[in-house]
Write a structure and sequence with these properties.
This protein is an alpha+beta fold. The chain is 42% helix and 13% strand. About 4% of the residues have low confidence.
């Protein structure tokens, strides 16, 4: 399929030396390169997220929302309120046409028609000193291009969940440099499941 400025095949992520799509995306790419069978899919790069919040003015609105009070001084209720307002910004802000078309053209036709899984891969998650498991949203059984685009925005918005903000507060992470990749993969209906650990 056609690659675009904002999309990369999962199998190719590990080859792109200067591309940080988060450790989840990188791990999937490494497994694919080692001939481990995984559902086909692509990654919406963090550049798409950065472009969206910059061109729509969301970046300034997010920083304004979180600039009302130092993050470490916010109570949980204040974090929850701030998170809700930020996430509503994402839901209400449409993808501007050129970004929308770039994402669509980089999405293989089978993924546009079949049920897919839309997964988060934050550029800050699961480093040596952090673990963001479960803090950002992923969605299953999403069908159709309009629903896919909507859920991409929901994954981006989950970067600002109350749990993620609370964790950022605890670790003193730099919210100015937060970014989110989105993985889109074929939905696999399994009969058995398991978990594996590796280095």
């Amino acid at each position: 399929f056609d690659m675009t400025q904002y999309t990369v095949a999962i199998k190719d992520i590990v080859r792109e030396e200067n591309l940080n799509c988060g450790n989840k995306a990188r791990a999937l790419s490494i497994m694919t390169s080692e001939d481990i069978r995984l559902p086909d899919g692509i990654c919406i790069t963090p550049d798409a997220y950065k472009e969206f919040i910059t061109q729509t003015g969301l970046k300034g609105r997010i920083l304004m929302e979180l600039g009302r009070k130092d993050l470490k001084d916010m109570r949980w209720e204040e974090l929850w309120d701030a998170s809700l307002r930020i996430r509503n910004m994402f839901v209400r802000t449409p993808l501007y046409p050129s970004l929308r078309e770039d994402i669509i053209s980089g999405l293989p036709k089978p993924l546009q028609r079949k049920p897919v899984v839309i997964r988060s891969s934050s550029t800050a998650e699961d480093t040596q000193g952090t673990s963001f498991a479960g803090l950002h949203d992923s969605f299953v059984n999403v069908i159709g291009i309009d629903r896919i685009l909507h859920h991409i925005k929901l994954v981006w918005a989950s970067l600002w969940s109350d749990a993620a903000l609370s964790y950022s507060k605890e670790l003193s992470l730099d919210i100015n440099n937060s970014a989110m990749s989105v993985l889109i993969q074929n939905m696999i209906v399994g009969t058995k499941s398991g978990i594996a650990f590796g280095e």
